[in-house]
Amino acid sequence: MSEVFEGYERQYCELSANLTRKCTSASALDGEQKKQKFSEIQVGVDEAESLIRKMDLEARSLQPNVKAVLLAKLREYRSDLNNLKAEVKRITSTNTNQAARNELLESRLADEGKVSADQRARLLMSTERLGKSSDRIRESRRTMLETEELGVSILQDLHQQRQSLLHAHNTLHGVDDSISRSKKILNNMSRRMNRNKWIIGSILAVLILALILILYFKLSK
Hints:
Elements: H1 3-26, H2 31-60, H3 64-111, H4 117-220
Helix pairs in contact: 1-2, 1-3, 2-3
């Protein structure tokens, strides 16, 4: 098991439990306190998504048998995060709808009987613009998330390519070592052959000299 993955895992579990408590407490708040709590929750959700991506990268860099186990755990964490985001969205939607109803009710009570057709039209236009702005914000966020996913995919590809290059480098290094050993062996063999030639030559010279001496002594008799 990877110590790096376990570190990310502990951070995520602590963060998930903290976000769950904040969602529960946010349901009982009103006004600015609730807005502040939702801001804290959103920051926590973004941090949780970042930890998920880091765990994914770390898991994919490990051995296949370890990677399979970690990716299975990672799917559970993703499911947990999606449930948490759905809960945040539900609470936020409830809070937004309640605030809008309260605002409309206060406006009606204050201006009842005095609101003209033009004012109603302006109110509808403002509401429509607000809806369009919300749609644009959601679309921008979706695009940002897609860009992040693309970046994670590119990083994974680069990591795999780096591993391939390192493997190729190690293979070439092994070939260089084999060539160096072969060269040393050939040099040793060459030296031994030269030494054997000198030994054989010396032996032949001694034999020839001995033969000459024998012939000399025989002929001199």
